[in-house]
Amino acid sequence: MLTNTAQWQRLLGHYQEMKSVHMNALFSDDDNRFQAFSLTAAGITLDYSKNRINAETKTLLVDLAKAMKLEEKRAAMFCGDAINSTEQRAVLHTALRNFSDAPVMVDGQDVMPEIKATREKMKLFVDAVSTGKKVGYSGKAFTDIVSIGIGGSFLGPKIMSEALKPYRQKQLNVHFVANVDGCHIQDVLASLNPETTMIMTSSKTLTTQETLRNAETAKAWFLQTATQADVIHNFACVSTNIEGAEAFGISQDNIFPMWDWVGGRYSVWSAIGLPLALAVGYDNFEAFLKGAYEMDQHFTSAPLEENMPVLMALLGIWYRNFFGAQSHVLLPYYHYLRGLPAYVQQLDMESNGKRVTQEGQSVDYDTGPIIWGSEGTNGQHSFHQLIHQGNTVIPADFMLPLQPHHDVADHHDMLAANCFGQSQALMAGQTEVEVRAALESAGKSQKDIDALASHKTMPGNKPSNTLLFDTLDPKTLGKLIALYEHKVFVQGVIWQVNSFDQWGVELGKLLGNQVLKSISDVSSSLDMDASTNGLVAAFRNRK
Ligand code: F6P
User: How many whole angstroms from 62 Cα to the centroid of ligand 1?
Assistant: First the structure.
């Protein structure tokens, strides 16, 4: 078990030394700290100097990664071993963005040909829809795409389309429907013309209740003006379940395969990314893939101590398992990246929110953290107070493009100043002596100073990383997403969990279906627990 390893024990001892060291001291001891604890790879710069570490910490953490056979496990993932042990599947989202000529073998077969064929089919489809060569049932070019999907079949295309807003094609509006709450699909369809709308159902399994219901509702809306024979023109589907798509009435030309060795939260690189490709054009989608490929090359070739995803993962372990951090906050200082925390929430929490090891042994240590966050500078006016003066360690990832997609006055300078100022304040804090001096120079009475000083003191020593990149273009976005995918992978290896199944979501789905029966059939007896019975009774009596 992880906690019995000598490397873990050495980190425990080291933590006893480091827990009382303030980062201010670490910075004053080493003028070169920024250079020593920052790294540039694949065009992204990671400043990790504002962490509660020294050179020994880094060595001990890398030793732990080696002890947990990270390099071997990494090789096993990339070469198609069935590392998703509970589903006996390979994990090959990396193959989807593989632009080398190297084959990738799954069960003795090279999967690259079918991946490349699907990319080509996507390109032809996107070009045909975008240029009006492919038209709706009445012969009109498409103006709107409605993408129906949830979880990884929604978050990826939606959040990446948002992040790449400056690259969107003007002639196509892409809309997303995920929630089974009827407000969502009602709002989206209300303004659309069925003649010029493509309904795209994205579902790896085609068994997800919300997606199936939304697809049926969209079809019913379509059939108010069109006929069943017209469905083949205006409907498309992305799934492993080809038969299910055909049964829905979708033509082969508009069905895009995906594979069971791509997890939902890792699937934006597959045809699940088709709504993104339609939003920004196929060339930009391919650039997105190539950015991820460049990060894959860094991840698989850089020594662990100079490996960006590895360092970010190890720092997360340091705070989660030694400082007891419960969460990790993402602070993208860029409006177009405002969806990133929600994306990484599924990526991280559905991967490492586990309680047993690959071998099924209950863990005796913390695993995946709670991921949260929102765009800067907005968070400064809502939750930053707790990060600054709360009594829990919340490691933060700040991120900022150096070049914005606007030239509005000095807004970007102000955004950058806030990003850097916040991480500086978290690190440095403000001592009571400094607070008292500031209050005295502001002319406050001694009585007021005594009353205020402790309230205004900021402990500092709050850790953060800062990621800098030039422009948030498709390639850079691909690098950033792959960076977080590999960070999650590394942490899963060290925690010895299976990051690629998600059994925890099954019970909720099962019970939801049972409750739906008792809601739909009002004559049925309420034989569930008292709370659920009470809630269903109240719902039944709502009318
Ligand atoms: O939340 C469970 C889950 O299976 C996710 O992993 C997945 O992204 C989502 O539901 C949607 O699944 P599907 O693409 O099969 O509809």
Answer: 33
The per-residue pLDDT for 488 is: 99
DSSP class per residue in 212-259: HHHHHHHHHHHTTTS-GGGHHHHEEEEES-HHHHHHTT--GGGEEE--
pLDDT number for residue 137? 98
Q: Which of 208, 256, 274 to mutate to test the pocket of ligand 1 (most atoms within 8 A of CB)?
A: 208
The answer on pLDDT for 200 being more than 80 is yes
Q: Give per-residue pLDDT as tens, 314-353.
A: 999 999 999 999 999 999 999 999 999 999 999 999 999 9
Q: Where are the domains of the chain?
A: 2-67+302-428+463-495, 106-286, 503-541
Which fold does the domain 106-286 belong to in CATH?
A: Rossmann fold (3.40.50)
How many angstroms separate the alpha carbon of residue 510 from the centre of ligand 1? 14
CA-CA distance, 7 to 17, in Å (whole number)?
16
Domains 2-67+302-428+463-495 and 106-286 share a fold: yes
Q: What type of residue is 172?
A: L
Residue-wise pLDDT for 366-379, tens only, equals 999 999 999 999 99
From 505, 507, 509, mutation site for ligand 1 pocket: most ligand atoms within 8 A of C-beta: 505
Mention the CATH class of domain 2-67+302-428+463-495: alpha beta
| Top mutation candidate among 84, 87, 205, 343 for ligand 1, by most atoms within 8 Å of CB | 205
> Which residues are near ligand 1 (CB < 6 Å)?
150-153, 203-205, 208, 211, 264-265, 350, 502, 505
Residue 453 CB neighbour total at 10 angstroms = 18
Which atom number of ligand 1 is nearest to the Cα of residue 153?
14
Percent of the chain past pLDDT 90, that is, above it, reads 99
Q: Quote the pLDDT of residue 522.
A: 92
Active-site option among 195, 286, 350, 375: 350
Q: How many C-beta atoms surround the C-beta of residue 62 within 10 A?
A: 20
pLDDT of 543 strictly over 80: no
Bridge pairing between strands 44-47 and 464-471: antiparallel
Compute the average pLDDT of residues 289-308: 98
DSSP 36-66: HTEEEETTEEEE--SSS--HHHHHHHHHHHH
Residue 1's pLDDT is 85
Beta bridge partners of 176: 147
